[in-house]
Amino acid sequence: MLNMAVLLSGSGRTLDNFHERIDKGTLAGKIQVVVGNVKDVLGLKKAEKYGYPAFYAKDNAEINRILADYTIDIVCLAGYLKLYTPPPSLSRAVINIHPALIPSFCGEGFYGHHVHEAVKAKGCTVSGCTVHFANDKYDEGPIILQKCVELGYDDGIDTIAAKVFAIECEAFPEAINRVDERGIDFFWKRVGR
User: Fold this and answer.
1) Does residue 108 share a domain with residue 37?
2) Is the pTM for the entire model greater than 0.85?
3) What is the pLDDT of residue 192?
4) Cα–Cα distance between 89 and 86 in angstroms, integer?
């Protein structure tokens, strides 16, 4: 079982998913702390409602000061929209989910609807999500898991977003479970980094 810190910037939909799966016993993790980089964001209110310690922190240094008070195995970026720089002890333990199949439609500026708009503009017939370890560049760490979803020719941006989010709700917990089973180092060694 992994001790998790959750970083978020928005409504906390991924936090909801984690919480539900922990309650059901299908996620091999325990949320120790939730940190948001937007003051009074809905995700922090949800964290408090669920009984998790919840904090606002404006930058990496503040986040890392908060995390130092908890036993953390992994940091999950759950709709966290800034580049996070962890302390050295967690440098290989940050997990992100990206709403596309990396290496397509990723990197700086590719998040949320920007990704789905680019997928639609290219006429893609599939999209999906990628759960990966994060490093010091956007969307470049070792991939843990990818899931694909079929797109209709007439799917609009909101439909694409909904299809991808539905598959994200499966992929992120499954990836955390794989990290719990295999260990963090397995994924970093797998790609020779």
Assistant:
1) no
2) yes
3) 62
4) 8
